[in-house]
Amino acid sequence: MKQNCETTQKRLPDLLDGMLDDRERDLVFGHLDECAVCSEILAAEKMISGELHSLPRLRCPEAVTRAVLEKTIELKRPVGIFETIVRRARIVFSRRALKPALACGLILFLSLLISHQTRRNEMRGKTYTDAEIDRAGEIMKWSLVYSARQVQTSERRVFSEVLNQSAPETIERSVLSVYTKSTGN
Amino acid sequence: MDRAFFQELLQKHRDRVFSHARYVLHNREDAEDVAQEVFVKLWEHGREVDPGKTEAWIMRVTHNACIDCCRRRSRNRKGEDRLRFDSPEAGLNCDDPAVLYELNETQRALLSAMDALPASVRSLILMHYFRDMPMEQIGETVGMTPNAVKVAVHRGRKLLRKALLARGKAVQERKVP
Asked: What ipTM does this complex have?
């Protein structure tokens, strides 16, 4: 069965795009062999697609690339202190990572809170006798006295060493007289 | 968006975007503005773009930017004479003579005939023929059904064909005397 002009012309773009099956192609070519008008249209279609396909690819001016870079990756803007700290510390802060980070932080905070509470309850539960408390007080007092004595002894030693080694004799004498008067030795 | 990836995309697609805009808009300055707009948008919305569909996204933004530019232009430059690619003055006054030099006579005639089509159809025709995109892909890119794209391209092509045939006749008539 032969096709008419209207059907053939509708199918010409598909023919050029290679979208027709063998049977349809045969029908279209069968009509084209006999119809000069449709053949002329096919030739024009071929010319249009060929010429548009071979349009030269134009080079984008460098000024455009430069302007794009200045408006994008080289854009200068004021930066807040928080962002500066985050950038210095090289912390990646993306929108996608924000929610998981907040969730992790919340879990960590809750676990710390729970452990602290448990420890406090444990401390509260412990009990002591009066003797134990007195003994603890004694230990603390003697520790403090011993520490104070150690400081006094070491200070005295250092002072005498300084006098013996570096102070002039006159100063040494005057200092010693003042010291003797004050202590009564 | 990652800086290195953005620069890679810019290097890869800038000529295509510029060429498409240049042929749709027929004006160098407008094409430059569109190319800038497309890549600045890519930088701003890069996170939302699927890495596998970046090219389609760029093409869609280019298509829409060209249509917007044409609308703006028709508002701002009403009554202003537009230079045709095939006008005798084009070679002397065109904003980019290098482009005219590279085009052959038929291509100039086709681009001039395309001027009568709406910007959206010009863009679809160029996507199909110049960018070798199948109808389905064009439809996916610009948010139309493949059939709607086919119909629009078919109408545009019919007009171009008429323009070419008229031109052929005119050339023949000029040769006869």
From this structure: 0.77
